[in-house]
TrEMBL record:
Cofactors named for this entry: FAD
UniProt keyword Flavoprotein present: yes
Record-given protein name: Oxidoreductase
GO molecular function: FAD binding; oxidoreductase activity
UniProt GO BP: respiratory electron transport chain
Domain FAD-binding PCMH-type residue range list: 31-210
Key words of the record: FAD, Flavoprotein, Oxidoreductase
SUPFAM superfamilies found in the cross-reference section: FAD-binding/transporter-associated domain-like, FAD-linked oxidases, C-terminal domain
PROSITE patterns: FAD_PCMH
Family: Belongs to the FAD-binding oxidoreductase/transferase type 4 family.
Xref: Gene3D superfamilies: 3.30.465.10, 3.30.70.2190, 3.30.70.2740, Uridine Diphospho-n-acetylenolpyruvylglucosamine Reductase, domain 2, Vanillyl-alcohol Oxidase, Chain A, domain 4
Coiled-coil portions: none
Amino acid sequence: MARLRAELGTGHVLTDPDLRAGYETDWTGRFTGRALAVARPGDRDEVAAVLRACAEAGVAVVPQGGNTGLVGGGVPRGGEVVLSTTRLTGLGEVDRVSGQVTAGAGVPLARLGAHARAAGLDFGVDIAARDSATVGGMVATNAGGLRVVRWGPMRDQVVGAEAVLADGRVVGSLVGLEKDSTGYDLTGALVGSEGTLAVVTAVRLRLVPAVAHRATAVLGLASTADAVAAIGVLRGPLLSAVEVFYDDGVRLVRAHRGLTGPFRADCPVYLLVEFAGDHDPTEDLAAAVSGLPAVVDTALATDEAGRRGLWAYREGHTEAISAHGVPVKLDVAVSPARAAEFETAVRAAVSAAAPSARLVLFGHLAEGNFHVNVLDEADGHAVSDAVLTTVARFGGSISAEHGVGVAKAPWLHLTRTPAERDLYAAIKAAWDPAGVLNPGVLIPR
Ligand SMILES: Cc1cc2nc3c(=O)[nH]c(=O)nc-3n(C[C@H](O)[C@H](O)[C@H](O)COP(=O)(O)OP(=O)(O)OC[C@H]3O[C@@H](n4cnc5c(N)ncnc54)[C@H](O)[C@@H]3O)c2cc1C
């Protein structure tokens, strides 16, 4: 503690329980632990100093950005130092020639997006936690979100990264070379590494063209199979979001936000579709939707307020679920072509494992990505086991975009072979031989 205080100044080493509290429990309230201290370095060299001090003292470190992660990877399990990146907020000038920008790891997504738009470009990834989620956390989890169908996940936006190893050495580059085939992709290894390999301090990011016009529709459908079939028709250069949610989720959101729509009568399945382009895509969207065979009802919005109103039914889910209680949350993906079959299978698996629980599904259907939320269920292990085993049976992913964290580490074996897990262990040992960084996350203890 004395060394950390000497390096950062007393005000940036938090040991008082009241000051630590906000860093010790995750967004869901499901994961919590006591930290030895919270260290808040202000630049890369201070990050290196914290890591060296912790490594030499044999104290584990939990990197933390905006603490919006949903798998328990950014909060302490007990006795670690939490390294908060929220003071690493440098944001470089947008380079219009390369179409790139450099952002400190602690820059919140909303600030990055506004910065890019002010320069006539945009950032390709968007998630509902945009006001708090940080660039570093999004790299560490390979965040996906609402526009993956158009621009891909974080992995596709990262051109370079600067990171500090557990022993304090600095690796990586922020030059932003679009072409560099010099062997192993060390930046790529950091994407999705969940704070287990190094602390990311800054990132060089690709930007995308700004889109001037958007139109949004919510379709009421009878089944997930109809929703999946609709994607095949809607896919094209204007498609920028395809989100699925269900009757029970809409009822929770309505109650939580005091809403009444989106339709007069309830529908079993809702599909939110957004078209975006450099001309007004309203007519394209209306024509595409009117050509779909199985639509029961439609709401279409073109102005900002109307679009926000429709998005509220989808984006309100996470908040409304958490307001109801602490859920067991699982974020999984299967091939989109098998999404309807999977939806039936996962509902059956949850009701067998937890007959009195309440299941709320929603997700990014174009990627076959379902967020599985189980409420009113104490035995998280049995439910997780049922859901993740079902995913594995479909050849899917136990972690589509939130990461594995501590929540799903015991199930890594379901979708990674013994040879692949040996490689994971070898990669971890090569970057962090003493096991200082985020022990228990991603790779089970
Ligand atoms: C309402 C809501 C909606 C969400 N929607 C989506 C969504 O649509 N798509 C999606 O992908 N996610 C979503 N999330 C999850 C979450 O926002 C993302 O996982 C996000 O990437 C986490 O960023 P963070 O800065 O909060 O990271 P944290 O929660 O602080 O940390 C997450 C992980 O990254 C590690 N980490 C953080 N910073 C660094 C760093 N600088 N270097 C190394 N490791 C680091 C941590 O150790 C931890 O393992 C949502 C969350 C909420 C609450």
